[in-house]
Amino acid sequence: MDAVTGAAKALAESSFAVALTGAGVSAESGVPTFRGPGGLWERYRPEDLATPEAFAKDPVLVWRWYRWRQEVIRAASPNPAHIALARLEELGVLKAVITQNVDGLHQRAGSRRVVELHGNIWRVRCVSCGLVEALDGPVSEIPPRCKRCGGLMRPDVVWFGEPLPQKAWEEALAYAGSADVMLVVGTSALVHPAALLPRVAKSRGAVLININPAETPLDEMADFNIRGRAGEVLPKLAQAVEAWLRT
Ligand code: BV8
Ligand code: ZN
Q1: Pairing between strand 207-211 and 181-185?
Q2: 35 close to ligand 1 (CB < 6 Angstrom)
Q3: Which of 75, 110, 209, 238 supports an S-S bond with 86, CB 3.0-4.6 Å?
Q4: 39, pLDDT greater than 50
């Protein structure tokens, strides 16, 4: 039995499957991964821009990077990978998508239960009074100012060196601890603590399915390693799950 069929059978027979996604799921929507080609931003390492220190030093530079990403993401649409994950939730197979991505594309594809570990690029937060606001497009002024106290607004995302939102992390841990199948897609599994979640699931006996065109540290612990792009593999996987469910 090939990996896709085996993975589909495991998903179809699961009672609590969850997904963990990384930037690779949005790559085929044209949203560059952190380490992918980024034009102007190739000069900077994400660890140098997505940090509180970088923001304190040069909020305008950091905001220019985020506004550029907001423009890219606004022009992007969910790709077949996002849509297949929403379909697996609709089939009652996938209980939740835990994502490291901040682009909101899972929600736009129709996924309802999405845990955002690293926040969302379409929200801003005041560094002084904590006011959180939803954006309906890229920020117009740089840096945006708080309408309540005039303080500096930052992207409401988790930067390197910052703790993850308590509620999101606890939900993600609970899902990983209850899963009997975890579908890991498009993540290099380098960023912590998100990278711990597949290990938590595996330690509780979950079947681990890993979809990535490249090798990752998860390969040796995954039950199914499917080498491929999310936009190609996930629609096939969702179709195969539907076929199993009909048998
Ligand atoms: C914290 C939001 C402590 C912002 C992001 C040394 C060892 C271990 C850990 C550390 C260490 N030094 C420092 C740390 C901690 C650090 C960390 O893990 N660093 C890494 C780099 C080693 N972590 C943190 O700082 C975290 N916080 O630890 O706080 C603490 C605790 C309590 C109290 C105070 C402090 C916070 C981490 C969150 C950072 N924010 N994003 C924003 O988006 O702007 S992380 C960001 O990078 C993304 O969210 C993503 O998750 C991550 C990785 O980026 P990418 O590599 O692009 O994406 P991904 O990993 O998903 O890889 C792309 C994959 O897709 C590749 O595998 C590729 O093969 C694949 N792919 C490509 N195309 C496709 C595809 N797959 C499928 N289909 C395709 N078509
Ligand atoms: Zn404020």
Answers
A1: parallel
A2: yes
A3: 110
A4: no
